[in-house]
UniProtKB/TrEMBL annotation:
Name used for this protein in its record: Acetylornithine deacetylase/succinyl-diaminopimelate desuccinylase-like protein
Gene3D superfamilies: 3.30.70.360, Zn peptidases
One Pfam entry name: M20_dimer
Organism: Fictibacillus halophilus
Keywords noted in UniProt: Hydrolase, Metal-binding, Protease
Signal peptide: none
InterPro entries per the UniProt record, alphabetical: Cyt/Met_Dipeptidase, Peptidase_M20, Peptidase_M20_dimer
Domain Peptidase M20 dimerisation: 194-353
Length: 464
């Protein structure tokens, strides 16, 4: 990275923020049908931005859902190719009354940019585009070849992208994938996420009598669906946090002692987490630290339970139905489809008498992990350290980005998760924001990384 590139980024900072503000003003909410045209506007905006940055072959590809935006720059003859992935869709803004400023009118307060999508993921995707523009404007060329794949359905589980990847493997062929949709360890403390948990989610619907019943006339004689679903949900875990679904842990890949030691060395204490969350105790699977539980152990969590009378006061009924939503976070070697079948078998085995149970499936995605000593990841660590001035931590993510595992399986190339967000930035919640310190340092880090990665790959090739 040269001083010319850094100076270009600094001189054009206000212009870049204005452009990002324009993109954030587009309410590209993929989950809501009424925003379908807004999602397309979001795609058109980033396509224009790629073109203005100097990318070629920019095209909006139609899918069964929202469009995928592609662009490339392939003039670095004989050099490796990087595929940059991002997404331009955002979460809904509800509850709107909790926003301190309008969610689609980007506002800067305390050197933080507030808007829906500021951190997840428009802000981070935008950084990639502007960095390549800065290098081209400053140097006239790029150190590597680049391709972009920017989708509009990540926030609803990327339902159309696997098919797009399968049908366009040659178009997306590359040597490494870089994604900025993860977070740093803390402010000023960069981290590279080398693993993500997978997931599967489902809804359980319990049906008892053919209508709500008077609890005085029928109570004690028929099964109450609320009691039944409570009993069923209680059967999933024991008092020590261990999941009781038969075969749930059969294929779980255990942490190595090296990884456990690395986790213990991180400045992430239970006390700090309790203070952050406002709780008096942490709970979970016995025998594991809070970091291990959230990064590398599987879970089964209740996400919602409801049924019966929900209004003010009391209505003495036995409800006809009760419902629950559950999700499982999965770790390497656990297959979502297998876990779904095991959970369904558990439900069938443990359902109380006098009810019918229906299971509806929702999102699912495979877990992902790659060795953190991979040259592409180590090059990223060096660039982070050069810009932030501190060693880079290597972490796993407790959440899921299902498309990461899909890229890994379909394209069979390493994925570098190189994020610049912070866990406190309220993504998916009101008052989402992005620290502009990481907007600035993040672009410098990315600019350095492309040159560091080129040297790293060249060295590896020479060594071989």
């Amino acid at each position: 990275m040269t001083d010319k590139i850094v100076n270009y980024l600094k001189e054009n900072r206000d212009t870049h923020l204005k452009e990002l503000t324009d993109w954030l003003a587009v309410p590209s909410v993929s989950a809501l049908p009424e925003h379908k045209e807004d999602v397309r506007k979001g795609a058109e905006w980033i396509a224009d931005s790629l073109t203005n940055a100097g990318m070629e072959n920019v095209k909006i590809y139609e899918t069964d859902g929202h469009p995928v935006v592609y662009g490339d720059w392939l003039k670095a003859e004989g050099k490796p190719t990087v595929l940059v992935y991002g997404h331009y869709d955002v979460q809904p803004v509800d509850p709107i009354e909790l926003w301190e400023s309008p969610p689609y009118e980007a506002t800067i307060r305390d050197n933080k940019l507030y808007a829906r999508g500021a951190s997840d993921d428009k802000g981070q995707t935008f950084m990639h585009v502007k960095v390549l523009q800065a290098i081209l404007k400053s140097e006239g060329t790029l150190p590597l070849n680049f391709k972009f794949c920017i989708e509009g359905e990540e926030e609803i589980g990327s339902p159309s992208l696997p098919k797009f990847i399968e049908e366009n493997k040659d178009l997306l062929a590359a040597d490494v994938i870089v994604i900025s949709d993860t977070g740093m360890l803390d402010r000023g403390k960069p981290a590279i996420c080398y693993g993500l948990r997978g997931m599967c989610a489902m809804q359980i619907d319990v049906t008892g009598p053919n209508s709500d019943l008077h609890s005085g006339l029928y109570g004690g004689a028929v099964q109450n669906p609320l009691h039944a679903i409570t009993e069923l949900l209680q059967s999933f875990r024991d008092e020590n946090g261990r999941i009781l679904v038969d075969g749930f842990y059969d294929n779980v890949q255990e942490l190595t002692e090296e990884e456990r030691e690395a986790f213990r060395a991180l400045p992430l204490t239970e006390e700090a987490l309790k203070n952050q969350l406002g709780v008096t105790e942490l709970t979970g699977e016995e025998g594991y630290s809070h970091i291990e539980r959230t990064w590398a152990r599987p879970t089964l969590e209740l996400n919602g339970v409801w049924g019966g009378f929900q209004g003010e006061g009391i209505k003495t009924v036995i409800p006809a139905k009760a419902h629950a939503k559950i999700s499982c976070r999965l770790v390497p070697n656990q297959e979502p489809d297998e876990i779904i079948e095991k959970v369904k078998a558990h439900i069938e085995k443990h359902k109380p008498a006098g009810i019918d149970v229906k299971v509806t499936l929702f999102d699912k995605g495979a877990p992902y992990v790659t060795p953190f000593d991979h040259p592409a990841i180590q090059a990223a660590a060096r660039s982070y350290e050069k810009v932030y001035g501190v060693p880079t931590a290597f972490t796993r993510g407790g959440g899921s980005i299902p498309i990461v595992a899909t890229f890994d399986q379909m394209l069979n190339i390493p994925v570098v998760l190189m994020g610049f967000g912070l866990s406190t930035e309220n993504f998916h919640a009101p008052n989402e924001h992005f620290h502009l310190e990481n907007f600035d340092k993040g672009m410098e880090t990315l600019a350095d990384y492309w040159f560091e990665l080129e040297k790293s790959i060249q060295k590896e090739t020479t060594t071989k």
